[in-house]
Design a protein that fits this description.
single chain; about 375 residues; mainly alpha; Chitinase A, domain 3; 3-stranded antiparallel beta sheet; two-stranded antiparallel ribbon; 14 helices; 7 strands; disordered N terminus
Length: about 375
């Protein structure tokens, strides 16, 4: 289903449109308003005919002002973030963890319905042409996302129970609601260096890349080497095999083929090749390879390395040195992230205020149902 494209990506797209449409809204509605809702404004909003929220129909939807909010609308955008927690913890612990996020998502959906009414009420019919054009642009962008294939795009919107008219109406709702929200945001303050530094320090792992090596290994294990001569020790037989293999490799024979034939290691069937890893993560007896690999060049085969019960012949295939991005390298990204976090916090707070005004007596029951559905759905992924 077209989940994130509707409930997550669209929000990002709309933020760009806000810059254009907010100006149009304000031009039609008088001087720009700043700050959050005042007492008088909240009283006016509370007096609007939203209606009391009825019980969730069948436990699957919440009715708000004649429209419905489904559990899918609430939980689908949260799945990626919470599915691992759902799989790793029992339900009661998961419910405690997920409830605040789900509750906020429900409030955001409620406020989305109500905000559209507020925005239309204030803008009147002054934005009809601009809104129609902006919605048409969103529809075009959506079709472009499917390579311009109109039929494929239509199939996607039908899978979420929409046709082109309802999809376009949805775009209008999102544009108007987000534009109205933008007009209510507090004046943006500059991001300070201290804030950027604190965020950078909390995300150092994200900006660091550990050292990585890819190598192939022929692992000759003494206890698996047998000789026809009972007087020859297993270790001596292992040394003889290794000596012969080294000569064959020097003469140009394929390392991976020799590993498949002679290696006793668990990666023998893969030609002895190990997946990329941090050399410091190697456990005994392979940990002794780390130092050797640091001094090798890709394509190089080292001299045999002896460990207890093993003799290794290793070929380095690739090597990446540890690296990290400095604060200066990622400062623009961090500043943008901080601005987005501030905006989201302000929008969530405003959405909660509006949702609370709706006096949603059954909201808690619906939130609990969504938490349960989120847990169940995560187990199936």
């Amino acid at each position: 289903m077209y989940d994130d494209a509707i409930f997550k990506v669209n929000f990002m797209i709309k933020r760009i449109l806000i810059l254009v449409l907010t100006a149009a809204v304000l031009a039609g509605c008088g001087p720009k308003k700043t700050g959050k809702f005042g007492v008088e404004e909240m009283e006016r909003l509370a007096a609007m005919e939203w209606g009391v929220l009825p019980p969730a129909t069948g436990g699957f939807v919440l009715a708000v002002g004649g429209e419905t909010i489904t559990s899918e609308q609430v939980i689908d955008p949260l799945i990626d973030r919470l599915k691992d927690a759902a799989k790793q913890t029992e339900y009661s612990r998961f419910a405690s963890l997920a409830y605040p996020s789900v509750e906020q998502a429900v409030k955001n959906n409620i406020s989305g319905v109500l905000l559209y009414r507020i925005a239309v009420r204030e803008a009147g019919d002054k934005l009809d042409d601009a809104l129609e054009k902006a919605a048409d642009q969103e529809v075009k962008k959506f079709v472009t996302g499917f390579g311009g294939d109109y039929a494929k795009a239509e199939k996607e919107i039908r899978q979420i129970g929409m046709d082109w008219k309802s999809f376009k109406d949805y775009q209008k709702r999102m544009i108007m609601s987000q534009s109205y929200l933008a007009s209510k945001m507090p004046k943006e303050q500059p991001v300070t260096y201290a804030e950027v530094k604190a965020l950078y320090d909390s995300m150092t792992d994200k900006f660091s890349t550990p050292a990585s090596v890819t190598f192939s290994l022929i692992d000759i294990q003494s206890n698996k080497c047998k000789s026809d001569d009972p007087n020859v020790a297993q270790h001596d037989t292992a040394e003889k095999i290794v000596k012969e293999l080294v000569e064959r490799i020097k003469n140009g024979e394929d390392f991976s083929e020799l590993a498949k034939q002679y290696s006793h290691g668990h990666r023998a069937s893969f030609g002895g090749q190990w997946p990329p890893l941090n050399p410091d993560s190697l456990a005994a007896p392979y940990d002794m390879l780390a130092t050797k690999l640091e001094s090798m060049q890709p394509g190089e085969v080292c001299e045999p390395i002896e460990a207890v019960g093993h003799i290794f012949i290793v070929q380095l295939n690739d090597k990446q040195f540890a690296s990290s991005k400095s604060l200066e390298d990622v400062q623009p990204e961090l500043e943008a992230r901080l601005r987005l976090m501030r905006r989201k916090e302000a929008i969530d707070k405003l959405s909660s205020q509006i949702a609370d005004q709706a006096n949603a007596a059954n909201m808690s029951e619906f939130v609990r149902f969504c938490v349960e559905e989120l847990y169940i759905k995560s187990q199936r992924l």
